[in-house]
């Protein structure tokens, strides 16, 4: 019940950022990619994740890397490389 949280807790518990927030999402996407194509190499996985990321032009690349994770596009690309 969000109405019972103090403002500070509301702000800190309802926003996610950083490695602790993104690592599980990226790991899950990699698992889906490997399920679609078990022959992918680590280099191919990295390349697919970077190429399929959604650009975020309002931020510098050192802040956000290749952009926002696009799990759907990454899995589709992994399946495409299978053939």
Describe this entry's structure for a reader.
This protein is mainly α. Helix content is 63%, strand content 0%. Helix 3 packs across helix 5. The protein is elongated, with a radius of gyration of 16 Å. The N and C termini lie far apart (48 Å). The model has no long low-confidence stretch (mean pLDDT 85).
> Are there runs of 5+ residues with pLDDT below 50, and where?
none
Structural class assignment? mainly alpha
Question: Roughly what is the average pLDDT, rounded to an integer?
Answer: 85
Shape: elongated
What is the element string, with H for helices and E for strands?
A: HHHHH
Terminal residue distance? 48 Å
Q: Please compute the radius of gyration using only Cα atoms.
A: 16 Å
Count of helical segments?
5
Number of strands: 0
Name the descriptors.
mainly alpha; 5 helices; elongated
Indicate the topology.
Layout: H1 7-13, H2 19-36, H3 42-52, H4 61-64, H5 71-82
Helix pairs in contact: 2-5, 3-5
Can you describe this structure in just a few lines?
This protein is mostly helical and 83 residues long. The protein has five helices and no strands. 63% of the residues lie in helices and 0% in strands.
